[in-house]
Amino acid sequence: MPRLLLTGANGFVGKILTRRLQDVGYQVIALSSSEPRADHGADEHLVCDIRDADALEQAMAQAKPSHVVHLAAVSHVPTSFKEPLRTWQTNVMGSMNLLEAIRLQAPDAFVLFPSSSEVYGAAFKSGLALDELTPCEPLNPYAASKVAAESAFREYFRQGIKGVIARPFNHIGAQQSPDFVSASFARQIALIEAGQQAPVLKVGNLEATRDFLDVQDVCNAYIELLKLADKPGHPNCVNIASGRSLQIRQVLDLMLSLSSATITVELDPERLRPSDIPVALGNSTRLMQCTGWTPSIPLEQTLKELLDYWREQVKHTD
Ligand code: GDD
């Protein structure tokens, strides 16, 4: 049975991906910086901060994986402005520590590195669906740190480590932190419906557009990308996008239409960013061609499930 080391296993995607990987036959060794919840469900657990190179090398020696998925990262753009040092140490030096640990302890492992569509940054101003040949022009510390980490991965690939870089666009679903836009809106609507928040929904920039995917579709793409381990000559960097861009205002309207509550929308200046990508749209042709992946879950379904999830959550927060 293939043994897969998953960093960031306690995060939003990590928890969902663990189950999905087990379903398709991987033994999952979950690595996280804090103790996992009792119901996490991975086959093995390792607690290790990826900024600690020695500890990570030891964890790699213990896990002896055939595959690695490196999800661990500071992934919230506003946090990256507030804490640039932690962002760079985790996203760049953490990735370097991982690559060194692979080189020393699991040199035959195939590694999938989820980077981010944020790397394109200012290039999105063209309004086009960007493909992987577009030069990166990051606009925030998170995006810049992902470009740097990609560069580290490419260098190790050049030296013979096997793997692929993915650039997922915005992915959403139940269990995502309300630090992110759709979860924030869903949580607030649920709180308002339950009478736990005044009927005023706080928002940031509603003019931006994003290319949204259900987290399950992104997990499908990761599972397909891991199969490239057996396909020599595969591309080393692929977008994961829906190819459709929606304004945040439209996402808000769709979510409000799912509620019968009367809700006023109010701009919260604290939610505005020093710089925000105005339009994000991706071209996934390369991914589709090398794996056959296509997205399958309509956004409307994802938003409904997200709102139902938060309705359940707020029942327990009286
Ligand atoms: N978070 C948040 N909260 N964003 C808001 C809000 C709000 O109340 N109101 C409007 N927005 C706008 C943001 O300004 C941004 O334009 C958009 O909604 C999406 O914000 P986020 O959900 O925070 O995601 P992101 O686009 O910054 O980054 C996400 O996607 C990347 C991939 O494209 C993150 O998940 C990154 O980790 C990921 O790499």
UniProtKB/TrEMBL annotation:
Annotated NAD(P)-binding domain residues: 5-305
PANTHER family: DTDP-D-GLUCOSE 4,6-DEHYDRATASE-RELATED (PTHR43000)
Protein name per Swiss-Prot or TrEMBL: GDP-4-dehydro-6-deoxy-D-mannose reductase
Cited CDD domains: GDP_MD_SDR_e (cd05260)
Pfam families found in the cross-reference section: GDP_Man_Dehyd
InterPro entries membership: NAD(P)-bd_dom (IPR016040), NAD(P)-bd_dom_sf (IPR036291)
